[in-house]
Amino acid sequence: MIRIMPKVVSITRKGQATIPKELRDKFGLRGKVLALETSEGVLIKPLPTPETDFGSLKGLFKGKTSRELLEEARAPDEARERKLEGRAEQ
User: Fold this and answer.
1) Mean pLDDT of residues grouped by 10 in the chain (90 residues)?
2) Where is 45: in which H helix or E strand?
3) CB 65 within 8 A of CB 74
């Protein structure tokens, strides 16, 4: 059985609350955090860093490089531009 000791935190008139140091250290809360509304109340989570998210979308892009993805995304616009340039020359 896990025993959780609740912490009482005061909230100032400006809506500021100090998260106890042991919780900040334990969960890596520094700088900015995410505050999420849940059915139980407010959940505070650390913001993900680029290092922790690195590669998290790889599976969605089937091993393509960022250059390949950009070229693929820009292709319709480039085709449209060529078409418009062709009309302007006539």
Assistant:
1) 81 94 90 91 84 63 81 90 78
2) strand 41-46
3) no
Alpha helices, DSSP H, located in 1-90 = 21-27, 50-53, 66-89
The H or E element spanning position 34 is: strand 33-38
Q: In 3D, which of 39, 44, 47 has the Cα closest to residue 16?
A: 44
Distance CA 42, CA 57 (A): 28
Q: How far is CA 44 from the centre of its chain?
A: 14
Q: Which residues contact 7 (CB under 8 A, 6 or more apart)?
A: 20, 23
Question: How far apart are alpha carbons 78 and 59 in whole angstroms?
Answer: 27
**Tokens 């912490």, residue located:** 7
- Give strand pairing partners of 42: 37
Token pair 């913001």 in the structure block, residue:
47
Which pTM value belongs to this model? Answer: 0.49
